[in-house]
Design brief:
14 strands; binds phosphoenolpyruvate; four-stranded antiparallel β-sheet; 11 helices; TIM Barrel; binds manganese (II) ion
């Protein structure tokens, strides 16, 4: 059961709900978001009458949510959540394409990337300064220097940025660099301590699906973030491990409508890591949008063959522009904008 508090709820009103739940033998979990405070009742709900709680001051609604994930469930929040990233909406009618290189390499590469992203008509930029690499001998990212380069390049074009956080010890540095969206990568989808920490702030989080995670496990990871009070979560399908070895991962298109039904959170797709080849990006992007995705995360590099990471899957700036132009009529046919 979740208890949704009025938007101007006072601390005393929240406390009185907690006291009531405790008196009924349940535990209360308070999640304070920017717009909403939600109290989760943990324990045997059958003991409670909805009306008992509904009558308490500050309570807007009481909803029984039977799913294991509560705050992220569509059950209590029918409308799609739209996340505002420095004025750019993600999750509404407009489909957002987040473009940029796999990793931050040099200032020139980032400047050219930001220019390419803008020229393609994208409003958000990606780039990794801390890279989760399979081999410890592979390029690990430029680190803090990379964040500086990214910020500088993106600021020139007023592009909000998304970059991956792997280590909780870097969170303050991310906040100092005003990272607009934090990416939790595939390999950290179930790093629960990391999820709890990003749950304590209000910066939007892109939560990528784990390599072999079920949608239910994925939503439970999102719930970790939401339970802490950060309700600004975007789910990113990026392909899962399968028996197939011909391409990098298998894009789970089925997950898109499934998630749109189960959760009110925006769902985006990363066709680059799903296919692992630049030539697959267009087809997978179209499939994602047709299935209802709210956005795409696409790797683009000024000179893909020189990319320090994931060279095979990077589009050129011209290819990114062509992709956006190709997707626009599709979005329109589906009653959306791009
Ligand atoms: C990335 O987006 O840079 C990345 C490493 O993706 P994933 O976590 O999906 O492998
Ligand atoms: Mn990559």
């Amino acid at each position: 059961m979740i208890i949704i508090m009025h938007s101007h709820v006072t601390d005393e009103e929240v406390r009185s709900v907690e006291v009531k739940l405790e008196s009924l033998g349940l535990q209360a979990h308070v999640s304070r978001g920017v717009e909403r405070t939600i109290v989760g009742a943990i324990g045997d709900e059958r003991k409670i009458q909805k009306e008992t709680l509904q009558a308490l001051p500050g309570v807007e609604d009481v909803i029984r949510v039977v799913k294991p994930y509560k705050i992220v469930a569509r059950e209590w929040h029918e409308a799609d959540t739209v996340i505002n990233i420095k004025g750019v909406p993600l999750g509404g009618k407009t489909i957002q394409v987040i473009g940029g290189p796999c990793s931050v390499e040099t200032q020139t590469q980032m400047d050219l990337s930001a220019q390419g992203v803008t020229q393609a008509g994208c409003r958000l930029m990606r780039g990794g300064a801390f890279k989760p690499r399979t081999s410890p001998y592979a390029f690990q990212g430029k680190g803090v220097e990379g964040l500086d380069m990214f910020r500088k390049a993106a600021d020139k074009y007023r592009l909000p940025i998304v970059t991956e956080l792997m280590d909780v010890r870097m969170l303050d540095t991310f906040l100092e660099h005003q990272v607009d969206m934090i990416q939790i990568g595939t390999r950290n989808m179930q790093n629960f301590d990391l999820l709890k920490e990003v749950g304590k702030i209000h910066t939007p989080v892109i939560l990528k699906r784990g390599l072999c995670a079920t949608v239910s496990e994925w939503l439970m990871s999102a719930e970790y973030i939401a339970a802490g009070g950060n309700h600004n979560i975007i789910l990113c399908e990026r392909g899962v491990r399968s028996f197939e070895t011909a391409y990098r991962n298998m894009l789970d298109v089925t997950a898109i409508p499934w998630l749109k039904k189960e959760t009110h959170l925006p769902v985006i797709v990363d066709p680059s890591h799903a296919g692992g080849k630049a030539w697959l990006v267009s087809a997978l992007s179209k499939a994602a949008i047709a299935a209802g995705a709210d956005g795409l995360l696409v790797e683009m590099h000024p000179t893909p063959c020189e990319a320090w990471c994931d060279a095979d899957q990077a589009l050129t700036p011209e290819e990114l522009t062509a992709l956006v132009n190709e997707l626009r009529p599709l979005a329109q046919a589906l009653g959306r904008e791009l």
